Fold:
Amino acid sequence: MADHYETLGVTREATPEEIKKAYRRLARQLHPDVNPSEEAAEKFKDVTHAYDVLSDPEQRQRYDMGGGPGGAAGFGDIFETFFGGGFGGGAQRGPRSRSERGDDAMIRVDVSLEDVIFGTQREISVNTAVLCSVCQGSCCQPGTHPVTCDVCGGQGQVQRQVRSLFGNVVTMHPCGSCQGYGTIIEHPCVECAGKGRVRERRTFPIDVPSGIDTGTRLQMRGGGEVGPGGGPNGDLFIEFRVLHHDIFSRDGNDLLCTMQLSMTDAILGTDAKLAGLDGDVQVTVEPGIQSGDMLTVRGRGIQGLRSTTRGDLKIAVQVTTPTKLSNREKDLMRQFASLRKDEQPHLGEFHQGFFGKIRDRFFRQG
Structure:
């Protein structure tokens, strides 16, 4: 039997892409539609068989390990003779199906915090296996069909009778001529090299639900790769990552931020309009507010996953002290200080300080 690598004109170190290119080149030269001679037809069968073996990682590995006398396959025959099954497992009954379920796929999608508030729709691109548009998954050239294997008669298996210490033993083995399929594709589709599928970049919209967080996964059934022989699609898993925002962070479905407030506004109180993630937010600052106090705006947080209820916007107040004052401003501040009898600076318990109040009110306040 001719060496499959020699048949395709490649080395044993050839990559799957090099093997595929070699097959396509030879198929264009030897295909019956191009070269109707009997010699070309026989070579075309050999080339197709060689490609079927070398393009399948498992078959290629078995072939490289010595699928002939004295190799791994020879040991397998001995194992099968004494234990009555396929090497490494029981023998399957009936022909194999060319149609198999496709692999699942996963893609990671980055979304902004703004997208998470209400959810949105995004377009994503994925390089995946799709149904061959030429053969529609049949693996054959248009107008042709697989033919029944004349070795196994379409059973996909052949019997072997071996004389052993226990007498004559009959075992079933996948047919080497049709690789267990029961049929042979004499005219493989050139577009997909007889696989029934090709790789293609697909772009399609997805719904980004509200309330998702980094690590949230969605499953799109049937969104994965189409299977060999036009088999059913696998599933597509989408894993989201919520990007960092410079101003807002989140605690569950609540949004957190900090508002810097002037000393005079903290003393006298004020109304402020802040730029929220989904529009302006109006807040009222009561006179005498302190650094670390929390302002809560109900219902301006994130809409929950599969919910219509929104969390809250929680604003931590940070009162700022001016560092540059004019002489007139300093005089007014001295007059203000002389009218008050404030306590002298002193140390207080840590949890009553600014950092403790921020911690307690952000993460413990309901």
Notes: The chain has nine helices and 15 strands. The two ends are 78 Å apart (CA to CA). Residues 38-54 form the longest helix (17 residues). Residues 67-91, 350-355 have pLDDT under 50 and may be disordered.
